[in-house]
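Entry 14. Structure prediction run on the chain below.
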Amino acid sequence: MRRARGGIWPGAGPDFCSMRNQVCLFSQEVAQRSGDSPSKSTPGDAAILFWNRFVKISIAVVLFWLVVGTATAQQAPAFRVDPFWPKRLPNKWSMQQVVDIYVDKDDHIWIINREGDARPDELGAATNPPRADCCVLGPEVLEFDQDGNVLRSWGGQNYAPGWPVRVQTLGVDRDLNVYLSGTMPGDGIIKFSQDGKFLWDFGHRGPKVPASQVKQDNQQTDVFPPGIGAFEFDEDAREMYIADGFLNKRVLVYDMDTGAFKRGWGGHGIPLSEIDNDPTPPYDPSGPPPDQKQFAPIVHCVHPSRDGFVYVCERGSDRIQVFTKQGKFVNQFWVHPSSQSRGPHCGGPWSMTDPPCGTVTNLALSTDPQQKYIFVADPTNNMVWILNRKDGTEVGSFGGNGRYAGQLHWVDAIAVDSKGNVYTGEVEDGKRIQKFVPVTGEHKVAR
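Output returned:
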């Protein structure tokens, strides 16, 4: 038991008297009970009362510290930013939109450094002759070690056949193969070695047509006309979960080796046949989003947990829906539903008139053995919300809109390594990755 400073009793204070004062109080109580003054009480009576009260106080102290210890053990983690991570990119590369982050089995951090939104004032060294000392476009895939050094870098437009026009999601399997997807018509999922060698194409690509020509179709499972927005692996089952929700509103599961379709579902676990193909209607943003059965696009992420559940980011409703791996609805968690989630006056990156909408662009499960917490990236409030995974209650947060270290602007990506460090990625003109180090709470590694 931890000792308190300056005394025997931990937490000694107004509720915990010193032993010397207790002897005096006991003698006085014996005297009051016998009708005598303290000087007339017998040593035996005082000793008996002293012992009885000593036992009661000892039990109370033990119970008190059991409660305090339990509360401390259940305390949500808090974080501080590491302002020097990562190190400066080499070769005058510019850091562009960090739209996704993945931590591999070796605790290396992989990011998408999406080049499509680079601005001329960021590429002063790319002209001939250079107009400025820095910078130039860097590769779209970067791998960092724990110290923030770039280990591998590759990829970009025309790097390999089928490279996404607008790369969106990245994943790394146990064999350190790297998968990428994109969100434009004709984009799919492609697989590379960790050194960037092309290995496999998932297929299921839709035609390369203007995005305005693509229509909802939540029943067919052969192709992805809008591209593929988000995916995640269940490597034990050799399955790939796809959040098909940038236009459609469903979750689909495929064999991650053959690309064969296996199953799928809509919001609240409804079968694919019951999903409508109509636009999701707006709602009155003076109140929370409606508790509707259908998913509301954008369905922005999907992540299975170790204990057999699947967590889906429903950005269009400010909520997380929880399912079994077979698609049975289990629960839903609302994430700051007072923030507008969809409808008019929802701006995308670079909007000069409207802010973003939706509070759940991505989530990461903590890496302790029980995966106790969900870390939610919220681009509208520019916060990371920490939820209790069991019931969805908010137990902590960090961030806040701004450009200083530790603040966030258009946070879009989030990941956690085995040590409990949290990594965030920002898009629009935030364009950075940050590392947040746990400063409270015990974190035990489970792999």
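Helices lie at 19-34, 43-73.
Filed with the rest of this week's runs.
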